[in-house]
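Appendix B. Chain record.
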Amino acid sequence: MTIIPLDPEPGEDIEISSNSSQSDSVFYQIFLPDNYSINQSTLLGNALPETLTLPDLSKGMHSINISYKSDDVLFNSSQLFSVAGSYVNIRSTIPSTPTICDSIGVIAEVSDRNGISTVQLIMNGEYWADMMSIDSNLYTLGKLIPPQPSGTALNLICQVIDANNDTTISLPYIINISDIPNIVPLNGEFRINDEINLVVDIESTTTTPVTASTKLFIITDDQWQLIGKDTVSFNGIEIKQAKFPGYYPFGKNHYKVVTNANLTCMSTDLVTDDTLTFDLETNAFWVTPELGSTDDGINHSLIGINNIEVDIPSGLVTESSILQILPLLDVMIPSQPDFEVIQSEDNYNGIDIIWGATSDYKINWTIGKSAVQSNNKLYRYFEEFRIWLPIIFAEVSDSTINFPSNGSAKFSFLENTDVEKPTIIATVNDQQFLRNNYLNTNPTIQFTAYDKNGIDYRTDSISFWINNNSQELHSEIRVSSNTIIITVNPILTKFDSTFALLVQDAAGNPSDTLQLSFIVSEKLDLIDYGNYPNPFAESTIFAYELTDAVEKLTITIYTVEGRKIRQLDNDNIVSGANINFAGYHEVEWDGKNQDGIPVGNGNYFYQIRAKNN
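Structure tokens predicted for this chain:
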């Protein structure tokens, strides 16, 4: 809220405004210097800004309270003003909560339409120093108040002498000199970069520069053992971190952090201390070539978190690295609508392992007897294709399972309602694969498999046969959303005649086996299937098949007299496919000549010619 002017005369109009975008139901109440009100809360108007004619007030500092609604929210604001004298108000000190080390500055707001001669600071009833203008209405001390003893109370008053030599003083501003600053440890957590760091957030609650010596302890055999030290420097009120790199024991451990504050203005080392105790489960461990997994850097050990154990043997890796094991509290399933998380008895529904190495290892997960007996399915998330796929596990005991992993991985128990089979279609050289297609000896076959919950693209979930003989799948597999495209380039002979493919979806449902029959042509053949419809009214389609790709294929149309009226090739047809590729093709003729004019009724001949180097 803003009042203009701040130094009105009795009976003068003042303008009251606000930075709110809109306001209504504006009420006001004026208070005398002794804080008694001269009126009940009174309606001023419907919207700010509003003009108020002051009553015949006595000289001195008064205040006005304004209340109004804005967007159905009630706002209240109070503003001082000075009647028949200079307006003066101490706004703040710097720092706001000074300590024994702080020099103190003062900011005052001063206004007088008749002009200002002098602005002074009175401290505890004694003149301290003149104040100088730093802005249109703001004044500051040119001479700071020096550091004061602990527990001192300062009574500050700003005194203004205007151009008419009249004096006005502000309301008193009381500050208390704080004792030594409080350096508070707030919380601890593990943060990983090139080291395993236990990081503790520490807050300084004063503007005084201070250095804190920080010590980290862990409880061992009922005794506190010092395991780390750090020094943190503060420039003022802020939160900084103490970092303690090292090895941390498997499991949930009890820690203590002690901060000792050393003020920069004092010679004594120990000023104050604050203590934080907390429990924290270790979730990051070193894996080294010599030790394998270790939680102390000296001995090989199991690593893990609650109910999860990982054992990585020595000699498995060639470089040391950090392995993190984190609970998955929120399992995301981005594109498998029939899948959902099985809520576990643990505090988390999955695990997230972060490891820069790619080595294989085994995981033991204690999930409880009932979960093991339920035959729940364990899934792993494959980040590259954003899909959860099933993982085979073994039962170590009636409550624990064991399963393989490698590198970074996410695991969770999922259930699904998917009972639909995935579908497969096949193309040859980008053309639809037809029964008894002619193929060359090295065709490009594409199988496109789809399921709304995704296809298991791993090679052990895809079966491929030639002439009923199982083949190792040497192929390119591309995954897009819930579709995979399998591209194979088999070497065929004239004795080969059938393909077969079977896939599984992410739920484990197998597809029907797609069976394809074909004829292998070891040389280039062009098979003409004629045109349809024949006769035609507006257009007709020429159908043919190539056993191999050619450099150029043309379809030339002649009159019965042998005059060429139209030639169709890959450059002048409307088709999404390259008609020079091997496979079955259909090419439409719109019944027009080279000039785009419809031909007359009658008989026409066509010739299909394929040219190759």
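Further analysis of this model is presented in Appendix C.
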